[in-house]
């Protein structure tokens, strides 16, 4: 099992590249199941989650692999086993994305209840409600979700996908993919508006789907009889970009971040500017500069275009060094605070009160051995290690490998001192 040893504090300087978005690539890989033939994703990141999804697609009958340039190829000509097995699906929540496309293409699908990060309850009932509205019969069988299309195929419907914590991203993906091959018109109300959902919709339209209202909470989908595979890149990963933006701020540094679309990160840029960072657009991304005291800020996570829950932990590490008190409120996953205790081990002053964390800024963080609990908490502990005095040891870095491709190499390239050690 690998660990990170991180020497700090460090100053960063230079250019760092953002990879293709994992959260866009995964549902687009699932969308490849809708069209016989070969789909190509030129910039799919080489991550643990992506590799797990490749294994999942191969288990369904697809031919999956990368060419010498790293482009991901998915040939879904043959799908002979429409079953998402427990041993694969349990590793990653995004596995649920195969439910909609397999239902539309094969008429019947079985998918194990999904796994993923331990960040609280994330039910799939809204996914199932949406698919039922299209005419599917759905029941549970030995821990598996079984979905069956009616004899004449799925039929378009008006569907509301709102939930107690806002719109559902993967639920919108699932219903949208299924609706592309349904008869008639589907209207999804309270659809998720995240850039990754919009990227999937654009991908589906490139395959021959007819989707209107992309990027809005109201999607209108005219069903078609068939889709065709395409070659198309995915958008840059705004969560990786946000992590590197915080890296510049927490180390009082200047970074040029390439493949960062600030139009998709308005809330993130706003909070960085509020604490004193300079965030400026560039032709191929953005520049982030931080010097002087870090100001406090209040942050509330919300569905897009609000502040993303996937950057909550990273900003907590940053605000731990603020000159003043901050409040972070988690409205998407109220239990997503397992990093609080680990940051406190590094001399942060964090106090959890329900869905809120009171962050009392300290003068400096002190290195300590810490344990990663989930993907984004891992990134936050790495960021804290860059600013902490001494050598921080982060255990269970396999979590970070699920969402960041060679993060230690990228950060080392701009001045960090991170060692990956197999223990």
Q: How is this structure best summarized?
A:
By secondary structure, the protein is α+β, with helices and mostly antiparallel strands. It has helices at 22-31, 48-60, 86-89, 99-106, 125-133, 169-179, 195-206, 238-250, 266-274, 312-319, 339-345, 375-387, 398-401, 407-412; strands at residues 2-8, 13-17, 38-41, 63-66, 72-75, 83-84, 108-112, 137-141, 144-148, 158-160, 162-163, 166-167, 185-189, 210-212, 218-222, 254-258, 278-282, 285-289, 298-300, 325-329, 349-353, 356-360, 369-371, 390-395, 418-422.
List its traits:
alpha+beta; 30% helix; single chain; 423 residues; UDP-n-acetylglucosamine1-carboxyvinyl-transferase, Chain
Describe the 3D structure.
- This protein is of the alpha+beta class and 423 residues long.
- The protein folds into two domains: 2-19 and 237-422, UDP-n-acetylglucosamine1-carboxyvinyl-transferase, Chain, CATH 3.65.10; 22-222, UDP-n-acetylglucosamine1-carboxyvinyl-transferase, Chain.
- It contains 14 helices and 25 strands.
- The strands form seven sheets. It has a four-stranded mixed sheet. Strands 2-16-18-17 form a four-stranded mixed sheet.
- A hairpin with a 5-residue loop joins strand 4 and strand 5 (72-75).
CATH superfamily of the largest domain: Enolpyruvate transferase domain
CATH architecture of the largest domain: Alpha-beta prism
What spatial order of strands do you see in the largest sheet?
23-24-1-25
Task: Label the overall shape.
Answer: globular
Biggest β-sheet: count, sense, barrel? Answer: 4 strands, mixed
Number of helices: 14
Based on secondary structure, the structural category is: alpha+beta
End-to-end Cα distance, whole Å, is: 6 Å
Task: Domain count, please report it.
Answer: 2
Number of strands: 25
């Amino acid at each position: 099992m690998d660990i990170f040893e991180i020497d700090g504090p460090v100053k960063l300087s230079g250019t760092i590249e953002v990879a293709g978005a994992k959260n866009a690539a995964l549902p687009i890989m699932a969308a490849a199941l809708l069209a016989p033939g070969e789909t190509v994703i030129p910039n799919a990141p080489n991550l643990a989650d992506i590799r797990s999804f490749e294994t999942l697609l191969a288990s369904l009958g697809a031919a999956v692999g990368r060419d010498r340039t790293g482009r991901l190829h998915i040939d879904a000509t043959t799908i002979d086993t429409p079953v998402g097995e427990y041993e694969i699906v349990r590793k990653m929540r995004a596995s649920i994305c195969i439910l909609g496309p397999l239902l539309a293409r094969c008429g019947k699908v079985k998918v194990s209840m999904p796994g993923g990060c331990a960040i609280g309850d994330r039910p799939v009932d809204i996914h199932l409600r949406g698919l039922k509205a299209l005419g599917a019969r759905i029941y549970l069988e030995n821990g598996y979700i079984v979905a069956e299309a009616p004899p004449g195929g799925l039929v378009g419907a008006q569907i509301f996908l709102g939930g107690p914590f806002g719109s559902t991203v993967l639920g919108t993906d699932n219903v949208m993919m299924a609706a592309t091959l349904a008869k008639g018109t589907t209207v999804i109300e309270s659809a998720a508006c995240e850039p990754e959902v919009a990227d999937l919709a654009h991908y589906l339209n490139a395959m021959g789907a007819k989707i209107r209202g992309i990027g809005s909470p109201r999607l209108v989908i005219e069903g078609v009889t068939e889709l065709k595979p395409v070659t198309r890149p995915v958008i840059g990963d705004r969560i990786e970009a946000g992590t590197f933006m915080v890296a510049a701020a927490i180390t009082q540094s200047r970074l040029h971040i390439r493949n960062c679309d600030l139009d998709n990160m308005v809330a993130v840029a706003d909070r960085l500017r509020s604490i004193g960072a300079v965030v400026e657009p560039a032709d191929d991304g953005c520049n982030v500069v931080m010097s002087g005291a870090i100001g406090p800020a209040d942050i509330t996570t919300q569905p897009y275009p609000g502040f993303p829950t996937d950057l909550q932990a990273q900003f907590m590490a940053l605000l731990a060094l603020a000159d003043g008190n901050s409040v972070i409120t988690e409205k998407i996953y109220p239990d997503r605070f397992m990093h609080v205790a680990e940051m406190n081990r590094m001399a942060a002053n964090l106090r959890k009160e329900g869905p809120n964390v009171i962050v009392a800024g300290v003068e400096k963080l002190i290195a300590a051995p810490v344990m990663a609990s989930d993907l984004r908490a891992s990134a936050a502990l790495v960021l804290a290690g860059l600013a902490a005095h001494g050598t921080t040891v982060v255990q269970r870095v396999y979590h970070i490998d699920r969402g960041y491709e060679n993060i230690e190499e990228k950060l080392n390239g701009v001045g960090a001192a991170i060692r990956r050690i197999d223990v």
